[in-house]
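Structure in, sequence out. Go:
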């Protein structure tokens, strides 16, 4: 059974990746907005924002990476919506394949596409002056946390992708996720914010993830932030996965 699942998921993953290869504008569009934001914040607002002794591009890059992921998963929802509307799901279900492999193919495609987008954004950040003395272990930690965050948001994206009535509705859910880093420690220290805003910023998932990534890249102790970040990601992932699978079963039953 497991062998069949992995085999079917691999075949369907190849199908989805071929679609992306034929439409590279998806990756370009996903990367373009975060890069534009990075240019704007570094070269227009950066001189007026307090970020300590480090370069502002180093300070704000973790938040830009999360925005890149939030932007990318909207395409996951949109691709799912298109497959639902075109009847591909029904045709695939009539074949002798593992039913869950259809969803996992989209999820894995999201991981691959977002990794490519993240690499593009980091390369642009390097051109803008980003530097990190972090070792291999720290970079692996950053990569693992970003992949977990991507997986979490992707399973959230599955829900509107399966249940939305329009393509715009399927992808619009990502807008609040894209703007959530702005009310966090991603661009300015939270102690500069008014009381209620600061309380929200310091107790929402993005802040702990941003602080963990920033500490790893700047070779600082991560403290409890890493455990808070992991708890947020895993908790949301479990809930999103259960809701997504239940939505999928209702749609194909």
């Amino acid at each position: 059974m497991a062998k069949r699942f992995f085999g079917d998921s691999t075949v369907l993953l190849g199908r989805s990746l071929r679609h992306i290869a034929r439409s590279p504008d998806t990756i370009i569009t996903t990367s373009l907005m975060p890069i534009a934001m990075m240019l704007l914040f570094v070269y227009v607002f950066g001189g007026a924002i307090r970020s300590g002794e480090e370069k502002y591009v180093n300070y704000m890059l973790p938040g830009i990476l999360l925005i890149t992921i939030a932007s990318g998963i909207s395409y996951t929802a949109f691709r799912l919506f298109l497959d639902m509307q075109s009847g591909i799901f029904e045709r695939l279900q009539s074949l002798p394949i593992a039913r869950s492999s259809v969803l996992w193919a989209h999820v894995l495609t999201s991981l691959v596409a977002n990794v490519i987008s993240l690499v593009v954004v980091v390369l642009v950040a390097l051109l803008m002056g980003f530097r990190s003395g972090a070792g291999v272990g720290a970079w692996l930690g950053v990569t693992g946390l970003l992949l977990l965050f991507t997986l979490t948001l992707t399973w959230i994206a599955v829900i509107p992708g399966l249940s939305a009535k329009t393509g715009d509705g399927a992808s619009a859910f990502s807008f609040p996720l894209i703007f959530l880093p702005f009310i966090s420690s991603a661009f300015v220290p939270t102690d500069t914010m008014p009381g209620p805003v600061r309380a929200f910023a310091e107790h929402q998932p993005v802040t702990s993830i941003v602080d963990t990534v920033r500490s790893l890249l700047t070779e600082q102790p991560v403290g409890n932030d890493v455990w808070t970040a992991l708890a947020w990601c895993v908790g949301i992932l479990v809930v999103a996965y259960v809701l997504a699978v239940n939505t999928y079963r209702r749609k194909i039953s």
